[in-house]
Write a structure and sequence with these properties.
The complex is a heterodimer of chains A (348) and B (429).
Chain A: H1 7-33, E1 36-37, E2 45-46, H2 50-56, E3 58-60, H3 68-86, H4 91-112, E4 113-115, H5 118-130, H6 133-148, H7 155-167, H8 170-180, H9 187-196, H10 210-223, H11 226-236, H12 240-248, H13 253-264, H14 266-282, H15 285-292, H16 303-313, H17 317-343
Antiparallel strand pairs in A: 1-2, 3-4
Chain B: H1 6-27, E1 42-48, H2 52-67, E2 71-77, H3 83-92, E3 99-102, H4 106-110, H5 119-124, H6 135-140, E4 142-143, E5 146-147, E6 150-162, H7 163-169, H8 180-190, E7 203-207, H9 232-247, E8 251-253, H10 262-267, E9 271-277, H11 281-287, E10 292-295, E11 307-316, H12 323-333, H13 336-341, E12 347-348, H14 354-360, H15 365-370, E13 374-375, H16 383-398, H17 404-420, H18 423-427
Helix pairs in contact in B: 2-12, 16-17
The chains are: A mainly alpha (348), B alpha/beta (429).
């Protein structure tokens, strides 16, 4: 039977229409919008690269000798020269030279130029900083999965308990932790005062501790969730004969973990790491919105919160769209690096 | 009859048409009255922030509907502190709004041209008793010679003191002639430091910020186009905030993360003095277990008494398809019945109703005494941005990250940039 060439397209049409209407067109529109100033009420005003310049641009320092472009070219030349020179060495010498030239080039550039919007870079740094919780969360997930993979009474009950934070509403968790972190009557500071006799920090009110508080909460919330289940599934797929053989060879528990378990679960680790990085870059909004409103002094403002605030609080739609594209480029490039790096580490 | 190989094609085509219809239908805005049949009833959409206003509005709507049986009024409620941005987003997105509650965010709407000028209606409907409304409060809704709202209430701020806390501390309560330095001195004396006592911490006063007007300053200049906190007084003022909130811990920064709201902290006895607003009167009267008194704000260091003030009222959106009906609804919403219903939350905007307020809440006298001394919120489109920016620098000052001089210099630079580069101002001739 001969099929009409349009038939598959027509079957795909409902999905394609939704994709075009709700994904592709808005994505392209946001790219166009990034070059406009628009407050929703008045007609968009063409501003060219100004939105991007306002976010990630640099300007000459008051005490700088060179303007931005010559400084950038010089520092790039310095980095390129260093990288070329590093190819002549091997091992730690190559790494040291590589690191030194990048540091030198960047320091030189920053001595001549300063960011137009230093706070946006601070928000980028916040986003990266909050990602520091990811390895802790992954380690906890693996540890929990390891424990819950053993046979003991009430195992299913514990699996359920550890999975609970994943099925509880996020807002509920944030409100609970807001109370736990309260500096006057919160659980943590009460315990610190009663048991250790020390007065705890003002967790969410202090720019020094607010990020750490959010990291702690995120580790708690994500350690026993989907990541634990993924690790549990990965552990159950490890062939028991490998452990038996290792035991016969006299390997202790640590060596069994290091040489059997860890390589065998590495595809799962790679998956969780990639998804965690992407989610981490895009995340941080809900916790900041409920717990800190991005404060104190922007200490918990992540890129996603900044985009929301610019777009829907301040009606800088163009700037918010530009920030979204900056975020996309960051996620995209980091995911590429991550894949390339993981390709040598994962054992399939 | 369709042949075998035509069947998938027909199925696919039908699916495409259906999904397109579904998407188009979903994306369509509600039909405007112009496209409706003539016989269909007219619906007005009213946006309010909820709370006690909802009951007052419901009562008025019963009367409005009895007078206009062919008009439906749909009430939308957007509670919380994001009322203004949500209302703006709804209007910008083309949601049907005819009448909306208005308060201190008025400038954000007026400057964007989102509201309808009410002058022609006031001229045409001479029966509306605008002369009975507090003139200064009506003027507050005037923007570039257009009147964009009518108030029903005046929101005023004063200071409430816990008389029992004063008695326990053996400190004489102040009288209405008190000065800012009396206030400061008493707050310091009333605070109990938890590090030395086993009982709960009590703060001398609970405020969001020691307001700049106590130093004769304001966040923006009178025209609302320049940052207003500069000079030695501003540095002194910022240093005082840093001292009382962070170093001494004699003031509780209410509303900050980790604290309850201002009134709850006062009612629970954690703060001995607090800023109080006219909308707190009802709750204060029914929930307080200790004796309290409301005083006009202390006299500022420049010898003037100043207090925060704003207004609650209603406006009509510029794009309403039924401006005449919206005006009738607005008249009802700012009328006597709503003002009487809301005596526990706001001072009536009509002067002839203010004696009723005094009768119901004798303690509210202090609010009326503040009426001639108001500092109203700036009426600018960029209010939200300016407040966020200033809040950032103020928090940074409270964290002790930079000295006050640096903070004020940077804040001035950034706030002035926000105002001068605003898309709305760039469009101005």
């Amino acid at each position: 039977m001969k099929r009409h060439p349009l038939t598959p397209w027509l079957f795909l049409a409902p999905n394609l229409a939704g994709f075009l209407g709700f994904t592709l067109v808005p994505v392209i529109a946001s790219l166009i919008l990034a070059f406009f100033s628009w407050d929703l009420f008045n007609e968009p005003l063409w501003v060219g690269w100004k939105n991007f310049h306002h976010l990630v641009g640099f300007q000459q320092r008051p005490q700088g000798v060179l303007s931005c472009w010559p400084a950038a070219l010089l520092s790039l030349a310095c980095i390129a020269l260093g990288l070329w020179a590093s190819t002549k060495y091997r091992g730690w010498q190559k790494g040291l030279l590589f690191f030194a030239t990048i540091t030198l080039g960047t320091t030189f550039f920053l001595s001549q130029a300063q960011p137009v919007n230093g706070r946006f870079w601070y928000f980028i740094a916040n986003t990266f900083y909050l990602l520091l919780g990811l390895p802790f969360s992954m380690a906890c997930s693996l540890g929990l999965a390891f424990l819950l993979n053993r046979k003991f009474r009430g195992r299913n009950l514990f699996r359920l308990i550890y999975f609970l934070p994943s099925i509880v509403s996020g807002v509920g968790i944030y409100l609970l932790w807001k109370w736990i972190f309260n500096s006057d009557y919160g659980l943590i500071n009460q315990v610190l005062a009663t048991v250790f006799g020390v007065s705890g920090p003002a967790w969410l009110e202090s720019s020094q501790w607010a990020k750490e508080a959010l990291i702690m909460m995120n580790v708690w919330a994500t350690a026993g969730g989907a990541n634990m289940i993924l690790y549990l599934a990965a552990l159950q797929n490890v062939d028991p004969e490998l452990y038996e053989a290792a035991e016969v060879d006299g390997a202790n528990h640590w060596n069994q973990f290091r040489h059997i378990t860890w390589p065998m679960v590495s595809p799962t680790t790679a998956f969780i790491l990639t998804m965690g990085l992407i989610g981490g870059f895009q995340g941080g909004f809900d916790a900041a919105f409920v717990m800190t409103r991005g404060g104190p002094a922007g200490a918990t403002t992540t890129l996603s919160y900044f985009i929301f605030e610019s777009g829907f609080h301040h009606f800088y739609l163009g700037r918010a769209a530009a920030a979204s594209w900056v975020l996309f480029l960051m996620v995209f490039s980091l995911t590429l690096v991550n894949w390339k790096w993981m390709a040598n580490k994962v054992h399939y | 009859m369709l042949r075998g190989h035509r069947l998938p094609l027909a199925f696919g085509l039908t699916t495409l048409i259906l999904s397109t219809l579904l998407l188009v239908g979903w994306g369509c805005r509600p039909a405007t009255p112009a496209t409706r049949r003539e016989s269909a009833p007219i619906t007005l959409t009213l946006l309010i922030p909820g709370g006690s206003l909802r009951d007052a509005v419901s009562n008025s709507l019963v009367r409005f509907r009895s007078e206009h049986p062919d008009v439906n009024v749909e009430v939308l409620t957007v509670p919380g502190r994001d009322y203004y941005v949500k209302a703006l987003a709804m209007m910008a997105a083309g949601s049907r709004l005819d009448v909306l509650w208005m308060g201190q965010g008025f400038g954000m709407f007026a400057a964007r041209g989102a509201l309808l000028d009410l002058h022609p209606y006031l001229t045409a409907h001479t029966d509306f008793p605008i002369h009975q409304y507090e003139p200064g409060v009506v003027e507050w809704y005037r923007y570039r010679s257009h009147l964009y709202g009518i108030p029903y209430g005046i929101d005023l701020q004063a200071t409430v003191i816990n008389l029992d806390a004063f008695a326990r501390a053996g400190i004489a309560p102040p009288n209405e002639h008190w000065h800012f330095d009396d206030y400061l001195q008493r707050a310091r004396a009333l605070s109990i430091d938890a590090r030395q006592h086993s009982g709960p911490l009590r703060y001398g006063a609970g405020v969001d910020i020691i307001r700049p007007f106590y130093f004769g300053l304001s966040l923006l200049n009178a025209e609302g186009n320049q940052f207003g906190l500069h000079g030695r007084e501003a540095e002194e003022w910022l240093a005082l905030n840093l001292a009382v909130f962070r170093e001494e811990r004699t003031f509780l920064r209410v509303g900050a993360e980790g604290t309850l709201d201002r009134l709850s902290e006062f009612l629970q006895g954690r703060v001995a003095m607090a800023e109080v607003y006219s909308w707190d009167l009802g709750e204060l009267s029914t929930r307080s277990r200790e004796r309290w008194q409301i005083l006009p704000n202390p006299i500022a260091r420049n010898g003037k008494r100043v207090g925060w003030g704003s207004s609650s009222g209603f406006s009509i959106t510029r794009k309403t398809p039924h401006p005449d009906l919206a005006w009738l609804l607005l008249k009802e919403l700012v009328g006597e019945s709503v003002q009487r219903h809301l005596l526990s939350t706001t001072v009536p905007a009509r002067r002839d109703l203010q004696p009723a307020f005094m009768e119901a809440y004798p303690q509210g006298r202090a609010f009326l005494e503040m009426l001639p001394h108001l500092e109203t919120p700036p009426r600018i489109a960029e209010l939200q941005q300016v407040q966020t920016e200033w809040d950032y620098w103020f928090q940074l000052a409270l964290q002790g990250k930079h000295p006050p001089k640096f903070i004020l210099h940077e804040a001035q630079d950034k706030v002035n940039t926000i105002i001068s580069t605003s898309p709305l101002r760039l469009r101005e001739p």
